[in-house]
Design brief:
Elements (H helix, E strand, L loop, with lengths): L3 H19 L11 H15 L2 E7 L4 H10 L2 H10 E7 L7 H6 L10 E5 L5 E4 L13 H10 L5
Parallel strand pairs: 1-2
Antiparallel strand pairs: 1-3, 3-4
Length: about 160
């Protein structure tokens, strides 16, 4: 039986464990070389006949985290793994990787997360140019999944 004095002795460990669970891995690698990641992903997509998804976002962005959580749900995660190479591009405070957004016609000023879809050769198929996912935390799982189904590669 746990006594109150024992609980107080272990409270710091309980709080630390809770913070560790809550501070799970952030979705965007803030130190990544996005240009290199895209080059590598194009090579992989070409071999596997997959499309690419470029996800522009930031760790501070609640909608970016909401989209990332939806993308990790079991059936959508499986669909993505089968059909796409995904590159998460950190935009910082809109001061990083802007050139990549411009290259793929994703105007970050309309909000993040924003996605671009490329074919296996790295050619642009679609770019979110109106902030379509900028309110991802209020979007239904079905509408997010529908986007990924729509842009599956033709085989």
């Amino acid at each position: 039986m746990l006594r109150p004095e024992d609980f107080l002795r272990f409270l710091p460990l309980v709080l630390l464990a809770g913070m560790t669970i809550a501070a799970d891995q952030p979705p965007y690698d803030e130190k990544a070389d996005a240009h290199q990641q895209i080059t590598t992903a194009i090579a992989e997509a070409s071999k596997a006949h997959k499309n690419l998804i470029l996800v522009f976002g930031a760790n501070w962005c609640g909608d970016c985290r909401a989209l990332d959580a939806q993308m990790h749900k079991e059936d959508l995660a499986a669909l993505i793994a089968t059909n796409y190479e995904v590159v998460k591009i950190d935009v910082g405070r809109f001061d990083k990787n802007r050139d990549i957004g411009e290259k793929y016609h994703v105007p970050l000023k309309h909000g993040i997360p924003a996605l671009a879809v490329l074919d296996p050769g790295g050619n642009l198929l679609y770019a979110m140019d109106q902030g379509q996912f900028a309110d991802a935390r209020h979007m239904s799982y079905e509408s997010i999944k529908e986007f990924f189904v729509k842009w599956e590669p033709r085989r």
